[in-house]
Design goal:
mainly beta, Tumour Suppressor Smad4, 6-stranded antiparallel beta sheet, 22 strands
Length: 255
């Protein structure tokens, strides 16, 4: 009598994948198969966020059935998902979790295990750890939390960024069909007049998913990445717009 060979067909299991950003800089990337994923300032958390406005144990994500579920760990300063303040959320691929100045993008994949339960190797988890942190969470008001959320939204969306003479960063979201750049009061990206930079410089024209820089009457020596612009020109992520001694950086929406 022939004995049957053990069935080693691979099964599929859910994998939660997270990318952690501060501004547009990716700080870390994580993958988890199951169990509880803890988020907080405590260096022992699975996703560690080093900021005093983040609670030591801020939130937790658990696999419940086929769904990954986010819930607050009674954090002092709360969190947002896709722009809404929440304490509980069933996550969907592409969701953006905001905790203080950090944005965590959630995605979901599938991984294989054999029928004996042994797991296939996962990529090493990159961590951003900072030992010896103060144990006190700094409380922020709802007004401040909403301001941080607004800044996160601006940075993650299409925008222009530049520094003024006081070295303060300015960020202007590009949400309208035409965003004007210049020193006149009707400009959304309003600059202080300087030598070689006064009047109406240009417009950024939004057309579906593309953005064009259109020179206007006072464009002068307008450039993109040191190349002169005399006609409407498509902008790419990270392009530098030069006008007089202003340098404005264009960023596409976060993907």
């Amino acid at each position: 009598m022939l004995s049957s060979a053990p069935n080693r067909a691979a099964q599929r299991i859910n994998v939660a994948e997270f990318r952690v950003f501060k501004g547009r800089e990716q700080l870390a990337q994580y993958s988890f198969r199951a169990g509880s994923v803890r988020i907080g300032r405590n260096p022992n958390c699975d996703i560690h966020l080093s900021d005093p406005s983040v609670s030591r144990n801020h939130a937790e994500i658990n696999l419940q059935g086929e769904a990954w579920v986010l819930k607050s760990s009674q954090a002092r300063n709360g969190m947002f998902v896709n722009g809404n303040m929440v304490n509980f959320r069933v996550l969907k691929p592409g969701d953006l979790i905001e905790i203080s100045h950090f944005v965590i993008q959630f995605d979901e994949g599938r991984d294989a295990i054999d029928n004996q339960g042994s797991s296939m190797p996962m990529a090493d988890t990159e961590r951003v750890l900072k030992e010896g942190e103060d144990s006190t969470t700094v409380s922020i008001s709802l007004h401040d939390a909403l301001q941080i959320h607004q800044l996160n939204t601006q940075v993650m969306g299409a925008h222009l960024a530049w520094y003024d003479e006081g070295h303060d960063e300015n960020i202007v979201p590009i949400e309208q069909e035409r965003t004007l750049i210049g020193s006149t009061p009707d400009c959304q990206a309003q600059l202080q007049p300087r030598h070689g930079a006064a009047g109406l410089c240009a417009a950024i024209v939004k057309d579906d998913d593309s953005y064009m820089l259109e020179p206007l009457k006072d464009s002068g020596d307008l450039k993109i990445n040191a190349v002169g612009v005399a006609r409407p020109t498509r902008l790419a992520d990270g392009d530098r717009i030069l006008w007089g001694n202003y340098i404005l950086q264009f960023r596409l929406p976060f993907d």
